[in-house]
Amino acid sequence: MSHLPGKILLAFFIFFPVLTNNVNEQRKLETIISQKEGIVNPVLLAEIKKLRLKSKEAKAYCKANHLNIDFYILVDLKLHSGLKRFFICDFKKDTIMHSFLVSHGCYTYPWGHDNSKDDAVVSNEDGSHASSVGKYIITARGHSQWGINVKYYLSGQEKTNSNAAKREIVLHSWDSVSDIEVYPNGTPEGWGCPAISNNSMRIVDQFLKTADKKVLLWVIK
Hints:
Elements: H1 23-37, H2 45-64, E1 71-76, E2 86-90, E3 95-100, E4 134-143, E5 150-156, E6 170-173, E7 195-196, H3 198-210, E8 215-220
Parallel strand pairs: 1-8, 6-7
Antiparallel strand pairs: 1-2, 2-3, 4-5, 4-8, 5-6
């Protein structure tokens, strides 16, 4: 998978239908997409395929659990933390509407640094200060001491994130998170919460406040 910096491909990023096993042909195709969409360094098509499959699964999950079926949020911790890896995905139009930087947990490294920027450690253990993978349901909106003072509570739905409430893992903004990609540097690491920039949170907040049902947030690695 590519860790190249640059803007994230929008309309074709997840749902582009053509895949090829020929490396040269793949590179040619990436160049065509880049020129058409104004992308400097798109991720590899293997990553596009992975996210495409995740979105199909996410839509089925949302329907089965009576969640919002207009959009969901995907966080891919496999990507370098200096790249945008927090995606608001539109189910109806098969596109990514927005992409942002997002922090992950520092684990045993110092808080506020980027020591695990290219290899996020994940754990569900209380006190681990690591991020937890799995599906979350975004629940109530509340007041946060961080960023723009808005947070959303997260209810972990799997064995890998079942301690989210106990660990006080919430979605919030953080002044230390940039609006733009910072690769090869990473995004500062906290204690496991998915934290985004203040401006990003203003956008996300509008989506969540107006959603007709609870929204899925899925963290993968």
